[in-house]
Design brief:
The protein has 4 helices and no strands. It is mainly alpha-helical and 86 residues long. It has a single domain, classed as 434 Repressor (Amino-terminal Domain) (Orthogonal Bundle). Helix 2 crosses helix 3. It is globular and about 40 Å long.
């Protein structure tokens, strides 16, 4: 996962007042593995990331990168946010 996604997950944890160890327990992974996911040292297993995102009520949204001159790149759209109504 990208640093932007990892940052959004860390922010969601902070917003919920939840510790990494609590989230790890909730989604049945070790605290060390969650730490590795959030540092980018692990995360090639989509299932683990899906558990993390589900537990924090987040979803991964893929947007096309801007290809035309003058287009607004997806990265400038701001931080990842929870979808409305969730």
């Amino acid at each position: 996962m990208t640093e932007r996604i990892r940052r959004a997950v860390r922010l969601a944890l902070k917003d919920r007042g939840q510790l990494q160890v609590e989230l790890a327990r909730e989604i049945s992974i070790t605290p060390q593995y969650l730490s590795d996911l959030l540092r980018g040292a692990a995360g090639h297993m989509p299932g683990a990331w899906q558990k993390v995102l589900d537990a924090l009520d987040l979803e991964l949204v893929v947007l096309p990168k801007a290809t035309a001159i003058g287009s607004t790149p997806a990265a400038s759209a701001g931080p990842l946010r929870r979808p409305p109504g969730r």
